[in-house]
Amino acid sequence: MIMSNLELYIHIPFCEKKCKYCDFVSFRADFSVVDKYIYKLLEEIEAKKYLANDYQISSIYIGGGTPSFIEPKHIAFIMESVKSNYNVLEDAEISIEVNPNSVNEDKICTYFNSGINRLSIGLQSTNDDELKILGRVHNYSDFLNAYNIAIHAGFKNINVDLINGIPSQTPESFKKSLKQVLMLNIKHISIYNLIIEDNTPFKSMLENNEIQLPLENDLLMMDKITKELADYYRLNRYEISNYAKEGFECRHNLGYWSDVPYIGFGLNSSSYFANTRYKNKAILNDYMSLNYRNYMISTNQNDFYDEVTHIDITNHINEYVMLGFRKIKGINTRDFYNTFNKDFEELFKTALSKYQNMGLVSKESDNYFLTDAGLDVSNSILSDLLLK
């Protein structure tokens, strides 16, 4: 029997310090709280194993927060539990997020020896002044040290996160950051535009004119610089914010953008399974009070979640289109038909014709995708493609 793929996400909500732009569920906690959380997390991982009986695990992603903030033994325990309870493919992509200042040789070697084969390093900038503005607790030297340790430990698949649009950032300083990273022969980079979220220090700082964001023309120049340097260093853009050398595309993210189901473990994590979206408890005390040993026999498993949302056909199509057009290859019409038993071209005929005529959408073989110009205005295009 051919088994379908399933992805796992594991959330570690702890950080040394919350960054000024961050609106994720993350916080600092003492080691006794961390120990109790990991115990509860392992309980949840074991309790939900029956959901994956008919699936093979194609990717695992340990994110946060800052997973590298906690003791490496906890990560090893998590990996042992996943491998003993789930059918993890031998070549599964297994990633962990790390911050440059919170890893050392012991941690990185433990990750590698426990089966983790991909690191995602949250650098954000090589400019120490920009890192201070963001509220990061590391500097560029910390990153270089962490990167070298990872290479010597045996990691061949390393992603580096960068941010553009940092307050006071210029196209020149961004170009220097990006070039310094690419010169290391990095296999994957993720470049995110800074978004000022509500209830973050940056939001109030912006309202009080304490920070100044780069102008729109500067942001466009940074995008142009990214495309030129990525091309020069032979990284292919495969998604709006992601670039990789051939064969190093993030399989976990590609699965997320391609309608692969996933189960999330831990505080505030999300799951997408059997046309239903689940949102774990977002308050630590609520999550810690759950008895996952009763999960399988519970008469109302919804009590274990903050939100349970059944996805009807219209919302499913809208999500499929929104995520599918994030990929540079776009949406395959045959895959769409096999998923929904509907003709993609007929369903979106008017909008597709409109944006093809404008040079913002193109078609190659059975794939519709956004052109370079279309990627720059993707939000407005996608909002026009949504079914009502």
Description:
- The chain has helices at 31-47, 72-85, 105-113, 128-134, 140-153, 171-182, 201-207, 216-232, 251-257, 284-288, 313-324, 333-340, 344-347, 349-357, 372-376, 378-385; strands at residues 4-12, 55-64, 88-98, 118-124, 158-164, 188-193, 236-239, 242-244, 262-265, 270-273, 276-280, 305-310, 331-332, 361-364, 367-370.
- With 388 residues, the chain is of the alpha/beta class.
- Among the domains are: 4-164 and 244-256, TIM Barrel (Alpha-Beta Barrel), CATH 3.20.20; 330-385, no CATH class.
- Helix 3 links the parallel strand 3 and strand 4.
- Helix 1 runs parallel beside helix 2 and helix 6 runs parallel beside helix 8 (216-232).
- The protein is globular.
Q: Give the class-level CATH name of the domain at 4-164 and 244-256.
A: Alpha Beta
Content of β-strand: 15-25%
Largest sheet: 9 strands, mixed
How many strands appear in the DSSP assignment? Answer: 15
